[in-house]
Write a structure and sequence with these properties.
Layout: E1 7-13, H1 20-31, E2 34-39, H2 50-59, E3 65-69, E4 73-75, H3 82-92, E5 97-102, E6 111-121, H4 124-131, H5 135-144, H6 147-150, H7 157-168, E7 174-177, H8 179-182, E8 198-200, H9 207-217, H10 227-232, H11 243-262, H12 264-276
Helix pairs in contact: 5-7
The structure holds manganese (II) ion (MN).
């Protein structure tokens, strides 16, 4: 047996907008991963999705593998050594990336891949992939894109990654896993929080509200961390969105969805716009 792989877990954006870092930190402490939450501000970033790829580019050389997790993605199965297991399988198969299929969303959107959560090997192939992220290639990806084959075009890193992997054939060196293994959605949780590994709050009009609602449904705190783990890792600030603020936010979301029903014809356009602006 060789030495254990060093695995980093990183999240962030251009701002710290959700408390998912509590969820990520607890998971990382429990499973021996080095977790960082990064502010991705940097020179020459032209697209809000590129904060992410710049962070990954900067941190990748520090590890054997680096896992990116969006700030709106929360781990729900704390018992699963999910990242390490997926990475071990990929490493054994000579793959340089692990990423999940983009599952069908309740609004009908889907995509071949979803870059909200992925693992990259510190490897020239990863450098090459990260090097492809830029406005010029976004144009090429857009021209290449066939919605029937690849789903929704989001005008971000996801489309470039999809275009690059499929058009170069590098996809053969990527482990594409089921969404339940790495990057799932709320409506796929039916029996327990272990139905999937990571819950990604895509497409919520108010993500903080979305997390709070999901937590309520599953009888867990807003960090989506079991109480015994909150105790174990000294988490003092818990479920900060109180019942009154939750009710206010809930009323706003309900009002917006009522409006949505009345404006149905325009709403598809708005949804498509929002999908392009959702991280
Ligand atoms: Mn996201």
């Amino acid at each position: 047996m060789g030495r254990q792989l060093s695995i980093g877990l990183v999240s962030g954006a251009d701002e710290i907008r959700l408390r998912s870092y509590v969820n990520h930190t607890v998971y990382a402490r429990l499973h021996g991963l080095d977790y960082r939450v990064e502010c991705g501000l940097d020179e020459g970033i032209t697209n809000k999705f590129f904060y992410k790829t710049r962070i990954v580019e900067r941190l990748l050389p520090n590890y054997d593998w680096l896992v990116w997790i969006d700030d709106d993605a929360y781990i729900t199965d704390f018992e699963r050594d999910g990242f390490r297991d997926l990475i071990a399988a990929a490493e054994a198969a000579g793959k340089f990336m692990v990423i999940a299929e983009g599952p069908l969303e309740p609004n009908g959107f889907w995509s071949t891949l979803n870059t909200g959560v992925f693992a990259l090997r510190h490897d020239p192939r990863s450098r090459e992939l990260l090097g492809s992220i830029g406005d010029h290639n976004l144009e090429l990806a857009k021209n290449w894109w066939d919605p029937a084959e690849h789903g929704i075009f989001t005008a971000g890193d996801q489309d470039i990654v999809t275009w690059y992997l499929y058009s170069t054939g590098l996809i053969d060196q990527v482990d594409v896993v089921g969404h339940r293994e790495l990057n799932s959605r709320g409506h796929y949780y039916e029996h327990s929080l272990s139905d999937a590994f990571v819950m990604h709050f895509c497409g919520y009009p108010d993500k903080e509200w979305g997390v709070a609602r999901f937590a309520k449904e599953w009888g867990i705190g807003q960090e989506l961390v079991p109480d015994e783990l909150l105790d174990k890792f000294s988490v003092k600030v818990r479920s900060p969105l109180g019942p009154v603020s939750y009710a206010v936010r809930n009323r706003k979301v309900v009002a917006t969805s009522g409006l949505k029903a009345r404006l149905r014809p325009y709403y598809r356009k708005y949804q498509a716009w929002r999908a392009r602006n959702d991280r």
